[in-house]
Amino acid sequence: IILMLFNSVVSTPDAKFVTMDTKDFYLNTVMNRYEYMQIPMKDIPADIIEQYNLNDIVHNGYVYTEIRKGMYGLPQAGRLASDALIPHLAKHGYHQAEHTHGLFKHSTRPITFALVVDDFGVKYIDKADAEHLKGVIASKYEMTTDWTGSSYIGIDLKWDYDARTVDLSM
Measuring CA to CA, which residue among 21, 5, 9 is closest to residue 133? Predict the structure, then answer.
Protein backbone atom coordinates (compact mmCIF):
# COMPACT_ATOMS: atom_id res chain seq x y z
CA ILE A 1 0.00 0.00 0.00
CA ILE A 2 2.80 2.44 0.87
CA LEU A 3 4.75 1.76 -2.33
CA MET A 4 1.51 2.11 -4.26
CA LEU A 5 0.96 5.53 -2.63
CA PHE A 6 4.57 6.65 -3.33
CA ASN A 7 4.19 5.55 -6.96
CA SER A 8 0.95 7.49 -7.19
CA VAL A 9 2.69 10.65 -5.95
CA VAL A 10 5.55 10.42 -8.45
CA SER A 11 3.25 9.52 -11.36
CA THR A 12 0.73 12.32 -10.74
CA PRO A 13 1.73 15.74 -12.07
CA ASP A 14 1.73 18.42 -9.34
CA ALA A 15 1.21 15.86 -6.53
CA LYS A 16 3.06 16.37 -3.24
CA PHE A 17 3.54 14.23 -0.12
CA VAL A 18 3.15 15.28 3.51
CA THR A 19 3.28 13.22 6.68
CA MET A 20 1.12 13.67 9.77
CA ASP A 21 1.60 11.88 13.07
CA THR A 22 -0.87 11.77 15.93
CA LYS A 23 0.34 11.88 19.50
CA ASP A 24 -1.03 9.44 22.08
CA PHE A 25 -3.29 7.85 19.47
CA TYR A 26 -3.91 4.75 21.58
CA LEU A 27 -3.83 6.57 24.91
CA ASN A 28 -6.76 8.88 24.21
CA THR A 29 -9.24 6.18 23.21
CA VAL A 30 -12.02 5.61 25.73
CA MET A 31 -12.80 1.93 26.23
CA ASN A 32 -16.40 0.74 26.08
CA ARG A 33 -15.56 -2.13 28.44
CA TYR A 34 -12.99 -1.51 31.15
CA GLU A 35 -10.10 -3.89 31.77
CA TYR A 36 -8.40 -4.65 35.07
CA MET A 37 -4.77 -5.22 35.93
CA GLN A 38 -2.86 -6.39 38.99
CA ILE A 39 0.53 -4.83 39.68
CA PRO A 40 2.95 -6.49 42.12
CA MET A 41 3.91 -4.06 44.89
CA LYS A 42 7.55 -5.12 44.48
CA ASP A 43 7.51 -3.54 40.98
CA ILE A 44 6.28 -0.14 42.17
CA PRO A 45 8.90 2.45 43.24
CA ALA A 46 8.70 3.54 46.89
CA ASP A 47 8.05 7.20 46.03
CA ILE A 48 5.02 6.20 43.93
CA ILE A 49 3.72 3.96 46.73
CA GLU A 50 4.01 6.88 49.13
CA GLN A 51 2.64 9.52 46.76
CA TYR A 52 -0.54 7.54 46.06
CA ASN A 53 -0.90 5.85 49.47
CA LEU A 54 -0.82 2.45 47.80
CA ASN A 55 -0.09 0.61 51.06
CA ASP A 56 -3.71 1.33 51.98
CA ILE A 57 -5.05 -0.67 49.03
CA VAL A 58 -2.63 -3.62 48.77
CA HIS A 59 -4.27 -7.04 48.57
CA ASN A 60 -2.13 -10.19 48.68
CA GLY A 61 0.94 -8.22 47.55
CA TYR A 62 -0.79 -6.57 44.58
CA VAL A 63 -2.46 -3.30 43.73
CA TYR A 64 -5.40 -3.63 41.37
CA THR A 65 -6.26 -0.95 38.83
CA GLU A 66 -9.04 -0.25 36.39
CA ILE A 67 -8.04 0.63 32.81
CA ARG A 68 -10.50 3.06 31.22
CA LYS A 69 -8.55 4.23 28.18
CA GLY A 70 -6.39 2.46 25.65
CA MET A 71 -2.77 1.92 26.55
CA TYR A 72 0.29 0.44 24.89
CA GLY A 73 0.44 -3.32 25.30
CA LEU A 74 -3.32 -3.72 25.49
CA PRO A 75 -4.23 -6.13 22.65
CA GLN A 76 -7.36 -4.25 21.61
CA ALA A 77 -5.82 -0.75 21.77
CA GLY A 78 -5.20 -0.49 18.02
CA ARG A 79 -8.67 -1.67 17.14
CA LEU A 80 -10.30 0.73 19.62
CA ALA A 81 -8.29 3.67 18.27
CA SER A 82 -9.15 2.75 14.69
CA ASP A 83 -12.83 2.31 15.55
CA ALA A 84 -12.84 5.84 16.99
CA LEU A 85 -10.89 7.44 14.12
CA ILE A 86 -12.68 5.99 11.07
CA PRO A 87 -16.16 7.42 11.88
CA HIS A 88 -14.53 10.78 12.70
CA LEU A 89 -12.86 10.82 9.27
CA ALA A 90 -16.11 9.69 7.59
CA LYS A 91 -18.00 12.68 9.02
CA HIS A 92 -15.61 14.85 7.00
CA GLY A 93 -15.79 12.87 3.74
CA TYR A 94 -12.82 10.51 4.18
CA HIS A 95 -13.51 6.83 3.53
CA GLN A 96 -11.37 3.73 3.42
CA ALA A 97 -10.84 2.27 -0.04
CA GLU A 98 -13.13 -0.69 -0.60
CA HIS A 99 -10.43 -3.26 -1.33
CA THR A 100 -7.32 -1.72 0.28
CA HIS A 101 -7.25 -1.63 4.07
CA GLY A 102 -5.45 1.45 5.37
CA LEU A 103 -5.86 3.51 2.19
CA PHE A 104 -8.28 6.42 2.44
CA LYS A 105 -9.74 8.85 -0.09
CA HIS A 106 -11.98 11.88 0.16
CA SER A 107 -15.39 11.81 -1.51
CA THR A 108 -14.83 15.09 -3.40
CA ARG A 109 -11.25 16.28 -2.82
CA PRO A 110 -8.29 14.86 -4.81
CA ILE A 111 -6.44 13.62 -1.73
CA THR A 112 -5.38 10.12 -0.70
CA PHE A 113 -3.59 8.88 2.40
CA ALA A 114 -2.25 5.69 3.88
CA LEU A 115 -2.76 5.21 7.61
CA VAL A 116 -0.28 2.95 9.41
CA VAL A 117 -0.93 2.82 13.17
CA ASP A 118 -0.88 6.59 13.89
CA ASP A 119 1.09 7.82 10.87
CA PHE A 120 -0.60 9.44 7.89
CA GLY A 121 1.22 9.50 4.54
CA VAL A 122 -0.73 11.99 2.43
CA LYS A 123 -0.73 12.54 -1.33
CA TYR A 124 -2.24 15.88 -2.28
CA ILE A 125 -2.27 18.34 -5.15
CA ASP A 126 -3.82 21.42 -3.52
CA LYS A 127 -2.33 22.31 -0.13
CA ALA A 128 -5.81 23.44 1.00
CA ASP A 129 -6.93 19.80 0.79
CA ALA A 130 -4.03 18.67 2.98
CA GLU A 131 -4.83 21.51 5.41
CA HIS A 132 -8.42 20.26 5.52
CA LEU A 133 -7.28 16.77 6.50
CA LYS A 134 -4.88 18.26 9.04
CA GLY A 135 -7.75 20.21 10.61
CA VAL A 136 -9.95 17.11 10.77
CA ILE A 137 -7.25 15.09 12.53
CA ALA A 138 -6.22 17.97 14.82
CA SER A 139 -9.83 18.43 15.96
CA LYS A 140 -9.58 15.03 17.68
CA TYR A 141 -5.87 14.40 18.29
CA GLU A 142 -2.71 16.33 19.06
CA MET A 143 -0.49 15.93 16.02
CA THR A 144 2.58 17.00 14.12
CA THR A 145 2.93 17.69 10.40
CA ASP A 146 6.03 17.40 8.21
CA TRP A 147 5.38 19.28 4.98
CA THR A 148 8.65 17.99 3.50
CA GLY A 149 7.32 14.43 3.71
CA SER A 150 10.88 13.31 4.38
CA SER A 151 10.10 10.48 6.81
CA TYR A 152 7.23 8.03 7.00
CA ILE A 153 6.96 4.94 9.25
CA GLY A 154 10.73 4.81 9.65
CA ILE A 155 11.46 5.19 5.94
CA ASP A 156 13.52 8.22 4.91
CA LEU A 157 12.18 9.78 1.72
CA LYS A 158 13.99 12.08 -0.67
CA TRP A 159 11.47 13.56 -3.07
CA ASP A 160 12.44 15.07 -6.43
CA TYR A 161 9.12 16.43 -7.63
CA ASP A 162 10.63 17.87 -10.84
CA ALA A 163 12.04 14.48 -11.91
CA ARG A 164 8.96 12.70 -10.41
CA THR A 165 11.09 10.34 -8.28
CA VAL A 166 11.50 9.36 -4.65
CA ASP A 167 14.50 7.63 -3.06
CA LEU A 168 13.73 5.44 -0.06
CA SER A 169 16.17 4.45 2.65
CA MET A 170 16.11 3.02 6.13
Answer: 21
**Cα dihedral 69/75/77/83 (nearest 10):** -120
Helix, strand, coil shares, percent, the chain, to 5: 30, 35, 35
Task: Give the number of other CB atoms < 10 A from CB of residue 45.
Answer: 8
Half-sphere exposure of 24 (CA within 13 A, CB side): 9
Supply the pTM of this predicted model: 0.83
User: What is the Cα 94 distance to its own chain's centre?
Assistant: 15
Q: How far apart are CA 3 and CA 52, in angstroms?
A: 49
Q: In a 10 Å sphere around its CB, with 0-12 CB exposed, 13-18 middle and 19+ buried, how is residue 133 labelled?
A: buried
| pLDDT tens-digit readout, 34-90 | 999 999 999 999 999 999 999 999 999 999 999 998 888 888 888 898 889 999 999
Are the CB atoms for 95 and 102 separated by under 8 Å? no
DSSP 55: G
Distance of CA 29 to the CA centre of its chain: 12
Pick from 166, 128, 125: nearest CA to 16? 125
